[in-house]
Amino acid sequence: MPDPQTPPQAAPKPAKPASANIHTHASRRVDRSKARRPMLEWCFYAVGLGALVVLVAGRFIYEAVQNDLRQAASQQGTYISIIILTLFGFAVIKNFFDIRFIHRQARLTDKQIDTLRQTNNIYVFLQNSDSSLFRDHIDNLHEIFRRDVNISQDNLVTLLQSRLLAKTRVVEFCSSILVTLGLVGTIIGLIQSAGGLTEVFQAMTAEDGSIMQGVESALGGMGVAFYTTLMGAILGGVCLRLLSNLVDANIEHTVSHIAELTEIYILPILRRAGRINEEHQQKLREKGIGLPQGVPIPGTVATGQTTTAPMPASAPENLEQ
């Protein structure tokens, strides 16, 4: 029998649950994009490909340009080699600006996710942060949340990736054009060679001294055919293709990283706030106040109908659960 003088012991307190701030801590696995440097990768690729082109085909490219200039002096030039080089230079510059844009967006995403963790408030982050792929993606999700509680980012991610990949279509198009110009130069060179051989046969029949001129024209045409094919294949089919694929790979990585950060840090908060709002509106309907059944109240947005009851105090913008 317990001693009546002994005070009863208090019931043990339940164990305190672990901190719910799972969305505010940094994660090396989630922040792995910081280890990737698109500009540095592009520079390595560009330098490596440039050195390879100079070692393997630099002399032939130089001779192709010289051959075009010689033929231009004799009013027989096609300028195919010069056109290929000019288009290649334009495509490389465009590719450089594409990869620089992706590099800036990747760095800006890493910076803004740190800012979002510090502010711990989606609304404050949207009001104070600069425009970027990451910020605009969150803003779009926030607008969807205000209209529909069943929020998903699948379509937004697909649209974002399609919009970014459309920026690289110019370089891919230039790559195909260079290969095609190489084939066009081949055909033109063969036609010139056939014309030169015709001059040779005519000179042999007439027994005059124009045989060497025909031979020179035939050899010049063969040079155009081979040089342009080589330049189109190396510059367009190899160099531009590799640089374009590098940009595409970084675009896919950046988009997937943005989608991962949003799935981890943003969507759980918005979905939880949507469930709270739904539960709140359901309780109001059960009491006979608020909006009737069937009128959605996700976030909310003005629809011409108003509710007589206040919204719950929980703000979906907070990053803390």
Overall description:
The protein is mainly α. It has one domain (36-273). It is built from 8 helices and no strands. The protein has helices at residues 38-73, 80-119, 122-128, 133-147, 154-167, 169-206, 211-265, 267-286. Helix 1 (38-73) runs antiparallel to helix 2 and helix 6 (169-206) packs antiparallel against helix 7. Mean pLDDT is 76; it is low at 10-24 and 298-315.
Descriptive tags:
single chain; 321 residues; mainly alpha; 8 helices; 70% helix
Number of helices: 8
**Main β-sheet description:** none
Mean pLDDT: 76
Strand content: under 5%
Q: How big is the Rg?
A: 34 Å
| Envelope shape | elongated
Oligomer: single chain
Percent helix among the residues?
Answer: over 70%
The SSE string, one letter per element, is HHHHHHHH
Q: Structurally, how many domains make up the residues?
A: 1
Span between termini:
47 Å
- Spans with pLDDT under 50 lasting ≥5 residues? 10-24, 298-315
> Count the strands?
0
Main structural class: mainly alpha
